[in-house]
């Protein structure tokens, strides 16, 4: 099979000169004009907001009525925009008719409160030995704006939220998700809302390590404090292994013991790093949050009936 | 530092071994050292990756070879140019460089691919116990020998020979060798010792000892 | 059956280690079933089994004649045809091995379904990348070379649950006797 | 609808030139899901919107027209979580655009596909995550790779190594020395003595 050698460009093999020049010109114009301005998804033809909301109610298996979902999805900036448009259109502020829908601030507050309580309860139930500051740090991380913004954009709220700019800002995304939780709470009840939080916010911890989310500044100090509370002696660190001490790839394995009982060990490039990591490992084993810990039973939290009574 | 980083450091750490080659067979210990240098003793071994460990071999001067391997085995260096074809017997090589014998054994046990050079660079051989301090500090484990260290005859105490059980009785009329050979020793005058004629050409590499060293075939070495 | 506790391995079916040409110390002497020490082992392992909260279990599963080591919350990919669609929950029958950080139970060849339950849910069914196979037959006039393109259907399954439903089979009878 | 085996796929624009056959160089990814899908108690279908552009007259969209006439209602009722838009475009080729929750879009031309194949493509969009056609670097994905602890060179080593000073005397012998001939003879001798005395 003889293949002709032809000139080629990113547009494919060069067949006609005029076509190549035409395409090159188009390409240059495009670069001058710059990227297309961002547009609202609702500006396109194939867009029907009611159908989208209807689908959204069915997507997560929550039975919501469309109106509450519409409220959850409208942002304060959207209302401001409407009022501004009306004043420009000459309507006085007084006789502007009240809108059928309201913005989602209150629902967001409700939702955030529900999520916070539930997360504290769930984490405290599954990691009883974990200190309170750690649980607060984890809930703060889970309810932080960036995490919640990722979650809500992953749930498809990016196009559903009604706001003044095409792509909603993280604050709008977080308000929308919390408002969604609030609307679930209104429609079907708190337990259903908590199951939603468990399924989408708590599962964010799946790939993450609890002990790294809660950054402990001085692990050895915390370890001594914890051991005193348990009535054990202060921790001592011993060198268990040292290979290649004078070489570049040096490895020290340091173990932490209290009264000759093993607490934890870890490796490090230098003795100080190894000791610090050993202290963290000891903390991890004391709080029982290391790898061999079972995973959080996201769907069985209620079946175990442990959260209801609290 | 994250837990998984500490775990990775521990898993891929380079362990330093010490090997006491006194009385050990270089071939058998060479296999073990080659395996450790390549890292095949680790479950995380992967041919592309260099997961090998470092080995410090000491006392290579006191390596033990089987039978008359010192005399009969030789290091064959074949080069295309003339006069560089050498057959150095191991005892001569040992005089030149006491660490070379073990080094060559490990080299032969390694598969001859491109990373062999780098794996061999992780082998440190020392003729005696004298090891630099910064190397002996790195050591964290020791490779065990591959053979039972025999007891030399002159180490035997008379008590051992007495307590050793008598297997059978010598017949009465047996005569042990009672010939006193020192009487028949004759000091060879220097002029009688055959001089080494300088031979060029094909024999040059082979003819450098006054006794015949059949490197290829196994023959009795005639020492006069 | 072979139960290994941490470092000490109890080889119930004692076999002489053929490979080692030196006398291997027997870990467990022959009439082992009713010995007191092994009873404690059985009870200890069964207690570990009941303690569901703190033990992350892992299992070795055979799916589409491939064996996979799975824990909960991890995703395995089955290559060829797989009937269940997205959202279907599956229970894996061929479980070869179950274990946690303290014990490992090895089935010969598979474990009793009443003892172990491994469940998963189908997350995604996609097509793999376009794979090409090049075929060349010399001295053929019409078609000497052929490119054969295809895409395999892939199924992603997330393991949702690994549970031990009862004490280890074979250990409770001997303790009750 | 179950996805039966489709090994030979006549991809609409599958020309050899566009196919990149060097395995190492093709773009590859690890397995991942959106938002830990499937971990909690529910599974969220990732397809949000489905737009079908069809021409009422042209022969190329005959399959698409059949599908819309016969299967569209059943499909919409079965999957209420997917919004389906049908766009009649005069004298244009039929297309299928799937928009996913995370914002990805997938475009599949349906020209000359019959009703069964259109149905197959729609269900392949339905069950996808949004970005197919990646080479998988690994066939599985785990967040907790090891439960019993990852091997380190120190796991199976006795702990007293750090206390020893090297070169160590008792570490030079063989671990399981074979019984030499002299030891066997001495053992036989002791046994003989024992038998004689007992």
From TrEMBL, chain A:
The keyword Transit peptide applies. GO terms for cellular component: mitochondrion; ribonucleoprotein complex; ribosome. Keywords: Mitochondrion, Ribonucleoprotein, Ribosomal protein, RNA-binding, Transit peptide. One of its GO terms (molecular function) is ribonuclease III activity. It is found in: Mitochondrion. Residues 218-288 form the DRBM domain. Coiled coil: none annotated. This is Large ribosomal subunit protein mL44.
TrEMBL record, chain B:
Gene3D superfamilies: Ribosomal protein L13 (3.90.1180.10). Keywords: Ribonucleoprotein, Ribosomal protein. Pfam families: Ribosomal_L13 (PF00572). GO terms for biological process: negative regulation of translation; translation. GO terms for molecular function: mRNA binding; structural constituent of ribosome. It comes from the Eukaryota. The keyword Ribonucleoprotein applies. Signal peptide: none annotated. One of its GO terms (cellular component) is mitochondrial large ribosomal subunit. The keyword Transcription does not apply. Belongs to the universal ribosomal protein uL13 family. This is Mitochondrial ribosomal protein L13. It comes from Rotaria magnacalcarata. The lineage of its organism: Eukaryota, Metazoa, Spiralia, Gnathifera, Rotifera.
UniProtKB/TrEMBL annotation, chain C:
Pfam families: Ribosomal_L21p (PF00829). One of its GO terms (cellular component) is mitochondrial large ribosomal subunit. GO terms for molecular function: structural constituent of ribosome. It comes from the Eukaryota. Belongs to the bacterial ribosomal protein bL21 family. This is Large ribosomal subunit protein bL21m. It comes from Rotaria magnacalcarata.
TrEMBL record, chain D:
Keywords: Mitochondrion, Ribonucleoprotein, Ribosomal protein. One of its GO terms (cellular component) is mitochondrial large ribosomal subunit. Residues 56-129 form the Ribosomal protein/NADH dehydrogenase domain. GO terms for molecular function: structural constituent of ribosome. It holds the Pfam family L51_S25_CI-B8. It is found in: Mitochondrion. GO terms for biological process: mitochondrial translation. Belongs to the mitochondrion-specific ribosomal protein mL43 family. This is Large ribosomal subunit protein mL43. It comes from Rotaria magnacalcarata. The lineage of its organism: Eukaryota, Metazoa, Spiralia, Gnathifera, Rotifera.
């Amino acid at each position: 099979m003889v293949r002709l050698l032809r000139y080629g460009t990113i547009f494919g093999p060069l067949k006609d000169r005029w076509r190549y020049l035409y395409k090159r010109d188009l390409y240059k114009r495009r670069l001058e004009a710059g990227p297309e301005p961002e547009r609202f998804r609702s500006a396109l033809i194939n867009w029907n907001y009611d159908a989208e909301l209807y689908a959204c109610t069915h997507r997560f298996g929550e039975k919501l009525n469309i109106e509450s979902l519409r409220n959850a999805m409208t942002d304060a900036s959207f209302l401001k925009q409407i009022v501004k448009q009306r004043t420009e259109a000459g309507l006085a502020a007084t006789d502007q008719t009240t809108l059928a829908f309201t913005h989602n601030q209150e629902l967001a507050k409700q939702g955030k409160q529900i999520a916070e309580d539930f997360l504290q309860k769930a984490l405290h139930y599954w990691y009883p030995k974990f200190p309170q500051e750690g649980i607060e740090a984890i809930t703060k991380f889970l309810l932080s704006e960036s995490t919640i913004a990722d979650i809500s954009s992953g749930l498809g709220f990016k196009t559903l939220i009604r706001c003044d700019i095409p792509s909603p800002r993280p604050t709008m995304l977080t308000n929308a998700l919390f408002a969604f939780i609030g609307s679930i709470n209104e429609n079907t009840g708190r337990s259903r809302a908590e199951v939603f939080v468990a399924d989408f916010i708590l599962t964010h911890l799946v790939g993450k390590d609890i002990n790294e989310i809660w950054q402990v500044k001085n692990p050895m100090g915390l370890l001594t404090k914890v051991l005193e509370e348990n009535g054990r002696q202060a921790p001592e660190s011993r060198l268990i292994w040292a290979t290649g001490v004078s070489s570049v790839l040096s490895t020290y394995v340091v173990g932490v013991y209290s009264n000759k009982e093993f607490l934890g060990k870890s490796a490090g490039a230098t003795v100080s790093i190894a000791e610090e990591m050993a202290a963290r490992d000891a903390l991890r084993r004391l709080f029982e949050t290391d790898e061999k810990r079972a995973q959080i039973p996201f769907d069985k939290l209620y079946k175990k009936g442990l959260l209801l009574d609290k | 530092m994250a837990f998984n980083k500490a775990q990775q450091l521990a898993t891929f750490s380079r362990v330093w071994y010490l090997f006491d080659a006194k009385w050990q067979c270089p071939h058998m210990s060479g296999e073990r050292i080659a395996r450790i240098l390549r890292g095949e003793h680790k479950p995380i071994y992967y041919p592309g990756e260099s997961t090998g460990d470092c080995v410090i071999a000491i006392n290579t001067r006191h390596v033990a070879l089987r039978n008359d391997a010192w005399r009969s085995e030789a290091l064959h260096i074949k080069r295309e140019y003339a006069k560089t074809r050498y057959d150095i017997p191991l005892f001569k090589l040992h005089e030149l460089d006491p660490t070379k014998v073990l080094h060559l054994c490990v080299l032969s046990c390694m598969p001859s691919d491109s990373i062999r050079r780098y794996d061999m660079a992780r082998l440190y051989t020392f003729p005696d116990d004298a090891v630099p301090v910064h190397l002996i500090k790195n050591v964290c484990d020791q490779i065990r020998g591959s053979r039972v260290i025999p007891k030399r005859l002159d180490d035997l105490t008379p008590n051992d020979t007495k307590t050793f059980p008598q297997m059978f009785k010598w017949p009465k009329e047996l005569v042990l060798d009672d010939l006193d050979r020192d009487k028949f020793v004759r000091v060879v005058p220097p002029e009688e010792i055959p001089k080494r004629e300088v031979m060029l050409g094909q024999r040059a590499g082979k003819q450098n000892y006054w006794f015949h060293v059949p490197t290829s075939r196994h023959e009795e070495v005639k020492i006069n | 059956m072979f139960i290994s506790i941490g470092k000490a391995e109890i080889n119930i079916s004692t076999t002489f280690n053929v490979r080692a040409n030196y006398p291997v110390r027997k870990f467990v002497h022959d009439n082992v079933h009713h010995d007191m020490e092994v009873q404690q082992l059985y009870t200890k392992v069964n207690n570990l089994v009941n303690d569901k909260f703190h033990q992350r279990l892992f299992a070795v599963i055979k799916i589409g004649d491939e064996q996979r080591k799975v824990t909960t919350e991890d995703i395995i990919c089955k290559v060829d045809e797989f009937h269940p669609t997205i959202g279907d929950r599956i229970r894996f029958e061929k479980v070869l091995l179950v274990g946690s950080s303290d014990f490992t139970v090895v089935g010969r060849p598979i474990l009793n379904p009443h003892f172990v339950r491994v469940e998963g849910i189908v997350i995604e069914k996609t097509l793999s990348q376009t794979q090409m196979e090049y075929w060349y037959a010399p001295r053929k006039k019409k078609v000497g070379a052929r490119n054969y393109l295809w895409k395999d259907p892939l199924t992603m399954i997330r393991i949702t649950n690994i549970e031990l439903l009862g004490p280890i089979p074979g250990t409770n009878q001997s303790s009750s006797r | 609808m179950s996805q039966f085996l489709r090994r030979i796929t006549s991809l609409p624009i599958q020309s050899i030139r566009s196919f990149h056959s060097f395995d190492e160089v093709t773009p590859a990814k690890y397995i991942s899901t959106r938002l830990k899908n499937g971990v909690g108690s529910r599974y969220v279908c990732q397809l949000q919107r489905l737009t079908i552009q069809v021409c009422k007259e042209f022969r190329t969209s005959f399959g698409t027209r059949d599908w819309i006439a016969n299967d569209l209602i059943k499909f919409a009722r079965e999957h209420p979580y997917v919004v389906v838009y049908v766009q009649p475009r005069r004298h244009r080729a039929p297309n299928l655009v799937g928009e996913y929750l995370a914002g990805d879009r997938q475009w599949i031309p349906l020209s000359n596909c019959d009703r069964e194949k259109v149905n197959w493509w729609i269900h392949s969009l339905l069950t996808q995550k949004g970005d197919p056609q990646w080479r998988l670097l690994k066939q599985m994905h785990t967040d907790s790779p090891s439960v019993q602890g990852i091997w380190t060179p120190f796991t199976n080593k006795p702990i007293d190594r750090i206390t020893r000073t090297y070169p160590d005397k008792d570490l030079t012998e063989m671990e399981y020395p074979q019984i030499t001939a002299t030891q066997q003879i001495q053992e036989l001798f002791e046994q003989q003595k024992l038998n004689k005395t007992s």
